[in-house]
Amino acid sequence: MPGRALSGRQPSPGKRSSELQNVKIETPEPSQPGMAERAIDTATDVSRTLTEASDALQAAANRLSDAIAAARRPGMPLATISAITREAPLASLFVAFLCGVAIARRR
Q1: 11 φ, ψ (degrees, to nearest 5)
Q2: For residues 7 and 10, what is the distance between their CA atoms, to the nearest angstrom?
Q3: Rounded to whole angstroms, how far apart are CA atoms 80 and 92?
Q4: I need a surface site. Which of 1, 4, 45, 86 has the fewest CB within 10 A?
């Protein structure tokens, strides 16, 4: 029982056994958690952080998928670019190359 004082009666040294003396025994309370408890707490915190990061990443991926799906509907820009690329792949590659060169020269 940590933190509780236990008392008992013992005979006093050098006196007759009929005379008893009160003795208090106190057990110290643990002041800090042990290494195992700290390791478990750290593992729990890391697990919680990873779960939160995973949930945030999954939510971002779902939003991106929804945005791509919306842009692929007929008449939207991604649908138009996809159709042009299917009809003229070399011309589309050339335009993409020129866009890359233009962006690289600005930096």
Answers
A1: -70, 140
A2: 10
A3: 12
A4: 1
- 71 by Cβ neighbours in 10 Å (0-12 / 13-18 / 19+) ranks as middle
Q: Which of 98, 76, 94 is nearest to 85 (CA)?
A: 94
83 CA to centre of own chain:
43
Structure-token match 């729990």, residue found: 44
Per-residue pLDDT tens for 35-62? 888 899 999 999 999 999 999 999 999 9
Question: What distance in Å separates the CA atoms of residue 96 and residue 89, rounded to the nearest whole number?
Answer: 10
Q: Is the separation of the CB atoms in 4 and 27 below 8 Å?
A: yes
For residue 34, give the DSSP letter. Answer: -
Phi/psi zone of residue 15: left (φ > 0), alpha (ψ -120 to 50 degrees), beta? beta
Q: Residues 7, 25: contact at Cβ < 8 Å?
A: yes
How far is it, in rounded angstroms, from Cα 85 to Cα 91?
Answer: 8
